[in-house]
Amino acid sequence: MSTQSQPRYATVIDRYYIDTRPLVPIPSNTKSTQPLPLLSTLQYSDQEAVTRFIRPADRFMSLASALLKYTFIHRRAKIPWSRVQVSRTPHPHRRPYWTPLEDWKAPVEGDSGSRIGGLEFNVSHQAGLIAIVGCSTPTAQLPTPHTHVAPGSSASSDSYEQLDLTGHRTPTLTPNEVRLGVDIACTNEDKRTPQDMTTQEKFDEWVDIFAEMFSDRERWNMRHAPIPVPVVEREEGECWDSEGSSVDTANGTPLQDRDARLINLKLRRFYAYWSLKEAYIKMVGEGLLADWLRELEFLNVVAPPEPAHHHPSRDHTPTHSSARTSSVAPKHLPNVQANNNAHLYPPELRHQNEARKWTPPDKAERGMTALLHGKKVEDVDIELVAYDEDFMVSTAMRGVEEQEPGSIADDTSQWKRWLRLDIEEDIKPCAEGRCSCLA
């Protein structure tokens, strides 16, 4: 599995996301008849995929995933919404991709006047947040040049066996091949995130559960590597040594609470490792079934801190993260799905407030090192950012060079930023043919 560098294709990277938490009724009721917006505008096979889920939260995430894929393909390929079709590689990987239409007139990108050859994209969803990263490509990004599994097709298992997934399943790139991966990690997810992680012993035991995914070195670093002290706590006089012991030189806060806070930061870093590895293997297309998971190692991993932003619902209440650091674990800690009030903002302030919830592009974590079979990976751009209190988003990009501002896109304010899409305001006009995307 080579990491040999290939020529890169220069283009703009789209980063879109939808937060479905305001859409899900609270408390969630599996018998809820909450309408699913724009469901009827999707292809029938995609409608079936959405309605197959029972829980409203899962239905909305599946719907948002489909809407993001349709929006990206519609805008970048410049085809009508009704003609968008998403294909997938066979089980077990089921990686989505787009097959250009036979009569497709590829749009022109850049100053050179060259036409694009296809699209590449990847989607992630976790705890109500759904994200897509995508770009144009020099050629169609298919499992093979002439074979794919169309939506709703009844291809036999024999035809699946003939499908060449080399480009999707190994870390080796062929010329003109572009691969993107994205993963969302949630540090406070209902029924998944441990809520009583207050001692080093408990943390060590929990980390070792994932021995099949992380190498011995990665798990040692998760447990013992020094944690950068948040600036606000350094200013308050707190010091942490490299072994994790903490002393408060300012106000004598009990060491038990300080140690619990340190464990919480280590837990956050664990999710950073998880997100980075998931993004890389999703870029390749093999997922957690890859037999080389432990051979893919990340070093010097730093979890981005929670972005500093004003949130009206949290002015006088402790944050989820700070609540988990108490030496006494709370019995009913609210999960992240129940803690989003973005829909309360006036429309003119929504995008501005959303931008504050993200790690600024110039502060994204890019200093980690990726090793594959002990060799440094040189040809993959990896980035890790935080969203709100409880999310981290990793991206892995190979074969593509993100275009400099102004070369293709007129609006450089979104350079390397994640853009939140509103279903009613941003996506509905596209789905109903009232947008100007095809102009």
UniProtKB/TrEMBL annotation:
Enzyme class: transferase
Single Gene Ontology MF annotation: magnesium ion binding
Record field: transmembrane: none
Record has Coiled coil as a keyword: no
Gene Ontology biological process terms, A to Z: lysine biosynthetic process via aminoadipic acid
Family annotation (InterPro entries): 4-PPantetheinyl_Trfase_dom, 4-PPantetheinyl_Trfase_dom_sf, AASDHPPT_N, P-Pant_transferase_sf
UniProt keywords, alphabetically: Transferase
EC number assigned by the record: 2.7.8.7
Entry keyword annotation includes Nucleotide-binding: no
Start and end residues of each 4'-phosphopantetheinyl transferase domain: 261-301
GO cellular component: cytosol
Pfam family, one: ACPS
Disordered as annotated region, ranges: 307-327
Superkingdom of this protein's organism: Eukaryota
Residue ranges of domain 4'-phosphopantetheinyl transferase N-terminal in the record: 38-135
Protein name: holo-[acyl-carrier-protein] synthase
Organism: Capronia coronata CBS 617.96
